Amino acid sequence: HLSSGSVASSGINAEYGGRSGKTLLSLEVSKDTTITDIKKMHIKQKPYLYPTRMNYKLSLKDKALSEDAKIADFETFCDGSVLYFKDLGPQIGWSTVFLAEYIGPIFTYLIFYLARGPIYGATDPTTTIQNIACAMYVGHYIKRVLETIFIHRFSKATMPIGNLFKNCSYYWGFSAFISYFVNHPLYTPAGCNTCLYIGLGTYLFGELGNLSCHIAFKNMRPAGTKTRVIPMPNSNPFTLL
């Protein structure tokens, strides 16, 4: 459909659930038109769409085109060329998903820790091991929440909203499973303090190492960019892992 000169008309084909070939619309574009521009024009005709929900390809087998890509960048784009569009479905922010994943286990764990009477019919207080286990488990997820707010930088703004329910079911479900048994009145702790100290030390070592690697990942991606680089060890010995 490309016309001669600097302005071109290109049909945008749709692919929904693997079905393709239906022409949605034709747009007037120039060589300097970017994918971002095409998204804006598309949204004017389909107001329910938004940029992170939209995906364009030169062919069904190609990767999604970058938002900064221009028509002039496509060497094969000529008269009669077609862009393939896919609706990615409702989206949700990565940080929102992470916060939901990590805040949930805090509460699901505390339910069994704080409500032992109603749940188990227990009258005895929690043991030292159970108290330490609660602090370790809740502390881990508080750390993850703070990392999500202050450290993590995401290369993509959103993910399909269906992932929210799948991911939360995993995190929340296993949190409840672990807490049920650890806080059960019949829970039997290890028989020696040495085991406790070794376990606690290993936990703290692992948490520090995990935090160090997350900070290293943050420093590899300047704020406001989508830069991708291969992780390399630095002066922090934890990054050697």
Q: Mind explaining what this structure looks like?
A:
This protein has 241 residues and is of the alpha+beta class. Helix content is 45%, strand content 16%. The protein has six helices and six strands. The strands form two sheets. A four-stranded mixed β-sheet has the order 2-1-4-3, covered by helices on one side. The radius of gyration is 26 Å and the shape is elongated. The termini are far apart. The model is unreliable at 1-9 and 14-18 (pLDDT under 50).
Biggest sheet record: 4 strands, mixed
Mean pLDDT metric: 86
Return the structural class: alpha+beta
How much of the sequence is in beta strands? 15-25%
User: Looking across the biggest beta sheet, what order are the strands in?
Assistant: 2-1-4-3
